[in-house]
């Protein structure tokens, strides 16, 4: 294992790329987590790497991803690169003996995801998909309530995750380039699928979806609506998109009540509370305000230090990509796709 991390108290992390998610969320999370330390950052633009390193007091800055992977003092890497590069750099990191936390969506398809999982398994390193919301304590509370029977038997799940891409900027945005893995399904639809699989504890059997596409790039889905069929006649109805007003919500409907989760995947810094409605009564479930990114990197680091299994293994990421493959195929071909 790189750096023999199991015999130390912290995991030494490197960052492959200076994406906004790395700068705004992951680097601060690594600096806050006692199980981790941020040791290096790399960019194809060395000046950018140096700028980020100086801003955060990171000891090393590399002008290339290969140089960081060659550093024997790095135990694990976080990969926030464009989606089409996840396979290449996860495999290279694994071959360099580095554990990998890879940003969502895990890959461009399930076949790539399987290749990533195989490479990490073959090289004895841990691999996880960076769905930070799953580490937030409110999802443990949600699943506890579902299991308790308070809302009865689940009858359906409804999810919406949409935003206006003009609000975040279109020029140079990789979300608008199909060859780089752009589109709404990859960017926000992955959350809607992952969230339903998490709260239901099951895998869908079929997908049906419709979509609108970017006129200048038919591989970029702008708005997608669909249905996932889960066992027992339970359906997930979802909308994901980059051309609709901001929404980020999840609702679980049961025979006796429902659970409403506002800001389901990116909670407000002020509140992560959600609501349970039964017999017309609305109960607030108070949830601690925490940094899900910090919890994510801290837990992954502990798994490395203790050589313990990750809570969400690579096989889970492969299954999520298989569902996204089915949704994309259904939207393109306008047909129901079995899983």
UniProtKB/TrEMBL annotation:
**SUPFAM superfamilies, per this entry?**
Glyceraldehyde-3-phosphate dehydrogenase-like, C-terminal domain (SSF55347), NAD(P)-binding Rossmann-fold domains (SSF51735)
Q: Which GO terms describe its molecular function?
A: nucleotide binding; oxidoreductase activity
Q: Which InterPro entries match?
A: Gfo/Idh/MocA-like_OxRdtase_N, Gfo/Idh/MocA_domain, GFO_IDH_MocA-like_dom, NAD(P)-bd_dom_sf
Secretion signal span? none
What residue stretches are annotated with the Gfo/Idh/MocA-like oxidoreductase N-terminal domain?
11-129
Its domain of life?
A: Bacteria
Q: A single Pfam family, by name?
A: GFO_IDH_MocA
- Give every GFO/IDH/MocA-like oxidoreductase domain span: 141-259
Provide the alphabetized UniProt keywords: Oxidoreductase
Coiled coil regions in record: none
Family, per the entry? Answer: Belongs to the Gfo/Idh/MocA family.
Q: What is this protein called?
A: Gfo/Idh/MocA family oxidoreductase
């Amino acid at each position: 294992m790189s750096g023999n991390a199991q015999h130390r108290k912290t995991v030494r992390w490197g960052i492959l790329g200076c994406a906004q998610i790395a700068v705004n969320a992951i680097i601060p999370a690594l600096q806050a987590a006692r199980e981790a330390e941020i040791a290096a950052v790399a960019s194809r633009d060395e000046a950018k790497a140096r700028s980020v390193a100086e801003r955060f007091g990171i000891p090393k800055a590399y002008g290339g991803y290969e140089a960081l992977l060659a550093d024997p003092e790095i135990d694990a890497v976080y990969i926030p690169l464009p989606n089409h590069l996840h396979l290449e750099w996860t495999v290279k990191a694994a071959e360099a003996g580095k554990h990998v936390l890879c940003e969502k969506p895990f890959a461009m398809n399930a076949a790539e995801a399987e290749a990533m999982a195989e490479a990490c398994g073959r090289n004895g390193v841990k691999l996880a998909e960076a769905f930070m919301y799953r580490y937030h304590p409110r999802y443990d509370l949600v699943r506890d309530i579902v299991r308790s029977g308070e809302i009865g038997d689940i009858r359906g799940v409804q999810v919406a995750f949409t935003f206006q891409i003009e609000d975040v900027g279109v020029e140079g945005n990789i979300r608008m380039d199909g060859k780089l893995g752009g589109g709404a399904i990859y960017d926000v639809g992955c959350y809607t699928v992952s969230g339903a699989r998490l709260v239901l504890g099951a895998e869908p059997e079929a997908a049906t979806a419709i979509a609108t596409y970017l006129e200048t790039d038919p591989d970029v889905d702008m708005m997608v609506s669909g249905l996932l069929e889960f066992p027992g006649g339970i359906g997930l109805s979802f909308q994901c998109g980059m051309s609709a007003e901001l929404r980020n919500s999840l609702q679980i409907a049961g025979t006796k009540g429902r659970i409403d989760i506002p800001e389901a995947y990116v909670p407000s810094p002020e509140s992560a509370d959600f609501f349970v409605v039964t017999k017309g009564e609305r109960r607030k479930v108070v949830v601690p305000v925490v940094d899900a990114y910090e919890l994510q990197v801290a837990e992954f680091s502990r798994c490395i230090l203790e050589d313990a299994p990750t809570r969400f293994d690579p096989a889970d990421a492969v299954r999520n990509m298989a569902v996204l493959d089915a949704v994309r195929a259904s939207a393109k071909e306008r047909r129901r796709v079995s899983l």
